[in-house]
Design a protein that fits this description.
Blueprint lengths: L4 E15 L4 E2 L2 H7 L3 E2 L4 E15 L3 E5 L6 H9 L6 E6 L3 E4 L12 H11 L4 H15 L14 H13 L5 E5 L7 H16 L3 E5 L3 H7 L2 E6 L2 E6 L1 H27 L11 E2 L5 E9 L2 E2 L2 E3 L4 E13 L3 E7 L5 E6 L10 E11 L7 E10 L5 E14 L25
Parallel strand pairs: 5-9, 5-10, 7-8, 8-9, 15-21
Antiparallel strand pairs: 1-4, 1-6, 2-3, 10-11, 12-21, 13-14, 13-16, 16-19, 17-18, 17-20, 20-21
Helix pairs in contact: 3-4, 3-5, 4-5
Length: 420
Amino acid sequence: MSGNEAIRVEAVTKLYRRLAPGTKLATLKSALVDGSLTRGLAAEEAIVALDGVDFTVGRGEAFGLVGGNGSGKSTLLKMVAGILRPTDGRIVVDGRVAALIELGAGFHPEISGRENVYVNGAVLGLKRRQIDERFDSIVAFSGLADFIDEPVKNYSSGMYVRLGFAVAVHTDPDVLLVDEVLAVGDESFAHKCLRRIEEMLAAGRTLLVVSHDLALIEKLCDRALWLDGGRQRLVGEPRRVIDAYRQAVAEAEGKAHREEKEAEAADDGSGRSERRWGSRQAVIEGVRLLVGKQERYHLSCGDTFTVELTVSAAEPLDDFVFGVMISTPRGTEVWGTNTDLAGMEPGRFTGEATVRVVCPALRLAPGEYLLDVAVHDQDGAPYDYWKHAVAFTVTASDRGAGVYFPQHEWTFEGDVEWEE
């Protein structure tokens, strides 16, 4: 391990064993006789929590772990903390480690906050004299002076976090491990924690953090790792990793959404259903969102994007209109258009056709959106109206309110100054 590395994770794999249905735990007596703690017909089954994860974290670096539930983030953090051991590979950590991994971990509920500070501080490697010297600072940081002599079992979840974080950051750790627990605290304390973390990073300390708050990861971290089903998908600059992760999530959600709506749209032959209806003289066979030539359902404000419809008509039609509508999940219509509004006069349509509407710049505010698509006659009678055919998300580097997000800039004249 080089002198500039604080954490090295080398080809780490972690397997858990679970007992298959029908397997029973043996008694100690039968275990001694049979040589096994289990008995029954079923064998053990291996669960792969992590598979070949490999990365390093430098000194003074903030490194984020992102991924869905069950992707192995917390397991990896526990192995870095030394709570778990890898099945294969190795983990090397250089320096004192402080971990905030589980809410209330290391606290005894029956004793007071004061006593827990001493117990938890000792577990993290402090001598009693050191805890004495730092006790007032720990309590002041936690904001729990009025409750420090109360049994911890009477604390709220936010109070647990306050006390645990206060103790951890006052142990002067070389490596701080944080697993989502800051999401439990209130906003004021979260800001205080972030300031302290930034001070630690500036002093050359190292941070390894797990969070579902992707904005926090992007703001705080120098690099990030995306775990997917225990496998390492991408390591790099946070924005790039987060965009790739969001795109994968959006594609999965979009696919699930389309399959759900297709199932709902399977009518009983009457031509009508809850999410899809019409005479079926023309049928929308497929819907895709494209950025360039790539199918995408996680878009960025300003993207050039395309709505692509595959439509078929079994018999020739001379009266037809293609349309699209974007709305919010709460039903607010954001934007819609059709070929009739665009002044296109129908001629003839038969067989299968690909219909595209291209938007040079997507000017939607960050959020979730739904797309309706339709083909109908000029009087509005639907051949095939597909409500909520596609779900997609939009992100932006700036913030705003509403759904419209025009390109803009601020200018000032006079004695107005802004901090860097």
